[in-house]
Design a protein that fits this description.
Length: about 120
């Protein structure tokens, strides 16, 4: 690595799917820099990929308090919420929305249907 900062090393581990090692490296960075929102986000993403959604959510929520990372943190919380189907409103919306989408796709794949003409 040309730039061997702790963050770049952690990021390289993350990109190589050496996720637990990346988690350890990100945590080591947060010890002296507990308000580093970028590291919180990356750590949260690595934890999510390891199936540790609760820990990931906690880090995303912390990152929302850091101005530089707040928008990305809210976005990641939204993605996590959808994937975990936390919100009743979102799952209710999905039930209302998905059947029509799938009906449209099925119709568009049916020869002779209006969608394929």
């Amino acid at each position: 690595m040309s730039d061997s900062t702790p963050f770049n090393e952690a990021l390289a581990l993350h990109q190589e799917d050496r996720l637990q090692e990346a988690v350890d490296a990100y945590r080591a960075i947060l010890t002296p820099e507990p308000e580093n929102g970028t590291v919180m986000l990356n750590l949260g993403q690595a934890l999510r990929r390891l199936g540790r959604a609760e820990e990931s959510e906690a880090l995303y929520r912390q990152a929302t308090e850091q101005p530089a990372s707040a928008a990305s943190a809210w976005y990641n919380l939204g993605k996590l919420s959808v994937s975990r189907q936390i919100s009743r409103k979102q799952s209710s919306y999905s039930r209302r929305c998905l059947p029509p989408i799938f009906s449209w796709r099925a119709a568009s794949a049916t020869p002779g249907s209006p969608a394929t003409r």
